[in-house]
Amino acid sequence: MKNGYARHTSFHVAVDCIIFGYDGIHLKILLVKRSFEPEKGKWSLVGGFLKDEESLDDAAERVLFELTGLSDLYLEQLYAYGDVQRDSGGRVISVAYFTLINTEVFNGLSSTKYGGKWHDIHEVPDLIFDHGTMVTKALRRLRRRAKTQPIGFELLPEKFTIPQLLNLYEAIYDREFDKRNFRKKILTLNVLEKLTEKDMKNSRKGAFYYKFNLDKYNQLIINGFVFDILSN
Amino acid sequence: MKNGYARHTSFHVAVDCIIFGYDGIHLKILLVKRSFEPEKGKWSLVGGFLKDEESLDDAAERVLFELTGLSDLYLEQLYAYGDVQRDSGGRVISVAYFTLINTEVFNGLSSTKYGGKWHDIHEVPDLIFDHGTMVTKALRRLRRRAKTQPIGFELLPEKFTIPQLLNLYEAIYDREFDKRNFRKKILTLNVLEKLTEKDMKNSRKGAFYYKFNLDKYNQLIINGFVFDILSN
Predict the structure, then answer these.
(1) Within this chain, do residues A172 and A140 fall inside the same structural domain, yes or no?
(2) Per-residue model confidence as pLDDT tens digits over B154-176
(3) CA of A25 to nearest chain B CA: how many angstroms apart?
(4) Which residue range is the domain that position B65 belongs to?
(5) ipTM metric
(6) Tell me, what CATH number does A8's domain have?
(7) CA distances (Å), origin B78, targets A80, A102, B104, B219
(8) What pTM value is reported for the model?
(9) What's the pLDDT at A11?
(10) Residues of B with CB below 8 A from A49's CB?
(11) Are residues A161 and A142 in the same domain?
């Protein structure tokens, strides 16, 4: 494409991805050891430079696909970072994205195969550049989203039990919820579909599996309903 | 600064600003007629290209200062737009910001002096490129922010009456609120400081002026209080 703006300065643009995963107990993020200078060998978010014929979203999808082999992930732009000195290797504008990996996929993403390693959100090592700031912001965004949108379901397998859903919310918000209130609240929302199958692994009585019903959820949203799993 | 990433493609980066103002009755945005090709003469957000030694925030502040002569405005990054074809003049990554101009300043910003013109939010003309999308997103963000943060006060003069505050909220949300409930709600929050002075222009009885007390507000936030002017 012809570029009429040639007299203006141009900049390297990158995307960096905060990848949240859930192992059934803890909320985690996937980090890689940086493979080039500067800061080679240090822990980093997964990222890459924007290419000519791709949008910012395309670049984030490509970077995630290269690392995980996965596409069609939940992907949300977080923020654009543009401080002059943010990258010691040269001026780079970085647009951060975050994504959510569900438990089943999580288990398939072995650390060695893709050169990434899952870290508990409470034990994130020092990260290069401003990546620590990005992680903090992403966690805040995840918490806000999970309050009002069914985003948490992206982190669970397709069928899940209420105790699993509760565990996930406890991991995201790093606090305990009242079991009975949580169950009542989530069932009242009427966005879960009860299956006939039970999980018998985690209790003698067993716990019914549920599926999230996106159609019902969308109906509620259209009718002005706000999904708020945490309010009283 | 030395740039070790030279082999990667570089891109033009711009900032575009959605400038909200309030004239005491209507919510408005400030637009300019584009002064260069392509799309010369069409309505556009105020924007500019990122320069070498400035951050994205710096660039947004500069662009706003050049247009309005104002600095220290409320400024919030909205979103980074990176579609390949978004700008018909060449590939440009645009980071959108929004800002709020208070009524007193608004009145001083005459349309001719700065080459900009205020448009009612309901009568925004066709805008170049993806600027219409940016405006829609900014309005959504403003509505969300004004619900839980005292952002609306940025649009008012330093001292204001409760009816003025109500008018502003009605303009932002484009609906009527119950006057009595609104007054009760906002006073219960205990973040307003009543002044001894009254506005006698708009009613026979007059309406006391108030100031927003940021210290009290910050105390509430620290204590886990959520500012929610609209809930019941």
Answers:
(1) no
(2) 899 889 999 999 999 999 999 89
(3) 27
(4) 4-147
(5) 0.90
(6) 3.90.79.10
(7) 9, 28, 25, 27
(8) 0.91
(9) 97
(10) 5, 8-9
(11) no
